[in-house]
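Researcher: We plan to redesign the surface later, but first we want a full-length starting point. Tokens attached.
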């Protein structure tokens, strides 16, 4: 199925190398159409920095029923109203988060020929990359990344993980294990909040052994003209949910809410969680994925780590019977996740166009 995606349509340029070359103006390829720029005519006011809901996750497991109910309610309303929230006291070691983030920053600061050994292709996306989508002449984003498969274990190929810095593979392994566990806990909460058995969602997406997880480390270099481009174009995430470790020193993530772009202010040691398209489909749009993008700036580079928690590759996702009735018919047809994901891998990022194009009229 991926045969159409064996190679990139044109030579790959590393954005980090471009930024380091001292250019004063960004190449045409990175200039977004006026309506897509961070401060477009449709968006006169600078984006507001508003915080998405912050959840104290340890309260979900509290012995105090009141705290527990309140935390579950807060997560439910965040999923319904925002599609995004931050979690603190989530049980993942802050030290591990910091070290993993630092080791990836070290990787991106290695000489380009060392990183090039891990260059990726569109067939799997695994490795060191600088673009999404295979459309020739597409307008590109101002970022490089490293993508690797983490789950299921059968897809894990440590030879594709960086061998330098020396601690990278070990940290990826440990960090991946901790954040996948946290995703498992969140899945239980999402299930209970939808009135389902706590393992229902996880089982619908393939069960603990078979769910997918991929780690994408994003590197956003400084940019001489940040008002003309984006680090990542607007999109919703194709999987179940995303768990993001942001760069806590530099804001960059923006969430679309009621037609405006809001800049998320990262909280130290918090993860940012967002709902993906598959959870929207399965819940028949009770939970909704939300469009988001990344802005860049001229003073600082940024590193962030996104763990995508996905259904088993060949699982067929459709609205769960619990959420389908005469009054609320199924909004989406059944679809295999690997087919769904192929859309993004060929077309690149395009807002919520993908999930909306599926809606049964």
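Model: Full-length starting sequence:
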């Amino acid at each position: 199925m991926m045969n159409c995606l064996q190679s990139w349509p044109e030579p790959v340029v590393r954005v980090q190398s471009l930024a380091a070359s001292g250019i004063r103006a960004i190449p045409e390829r990175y200039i977004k159409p006026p309506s897509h720029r961070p401060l477009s005519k449709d968006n006169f006011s600078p984006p507001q920095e508003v915080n998405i809901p912050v959840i104290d996750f340890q309260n979900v497991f509290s012995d105090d029923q009141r705290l527990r109910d309140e935390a579950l309610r807060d997560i439910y309303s965040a999923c319904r109203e925002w599609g995004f929230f931050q979690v603190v006291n989530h049980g993942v070691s802050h030290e591990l988060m910091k070290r993993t983030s630092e080791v990836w920053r070290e990787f991106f600061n290695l000489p380009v020929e060392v990183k090039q050994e891990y260059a990726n292709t569109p067939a799997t996306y695994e490795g060191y990359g600088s673009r999404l989508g295979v459309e020739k002449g597409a307008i590109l984003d101002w970022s490089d990344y490293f993508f690797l498969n983490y789950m299921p274990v059968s897809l894990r190929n440590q030879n594709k993980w960086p061998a330098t810095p020396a601690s990278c593979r070990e940290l990826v392994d440990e960090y991946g294990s901790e954040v996948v566990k946290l995703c498992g806990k969140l899945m239980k909460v999402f299930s209970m909040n939808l009135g389902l058995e706590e393992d229902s969602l996880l089982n619908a997406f393939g069960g603990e052994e078979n769910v997918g997880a991929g780690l994408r480390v994003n590197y956003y270099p400084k940019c001489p003209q940040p008002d003309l481009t984006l680090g990542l174009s607007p999109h919703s995430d194709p999987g179940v949910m995303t768990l993001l470790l942001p760069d806590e020193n530099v804001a960059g993530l923006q969430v679309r809410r009621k037609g405006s772009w809001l800049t998320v202010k990262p909280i130290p040691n918090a993860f940012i969680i967002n709902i993906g398209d598959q959870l929207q489909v399965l819940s028949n749009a009770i939970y909704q994925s939300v469009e988001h993008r990344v802005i860049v700036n001229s003073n600082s580079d940024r590193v962030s780590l996104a763990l995508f928690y996905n259904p088993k590759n060949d699982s067929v996702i459709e609205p769960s019977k619990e959420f389908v009735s005469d009054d609320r018919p199924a909004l989406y047809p059944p679809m295999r996740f690997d087919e769904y994901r192929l859309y993004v891998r060929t077309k690149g990022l395009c807002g919520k166009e993908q999930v909306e194009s599926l809606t049964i009229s």
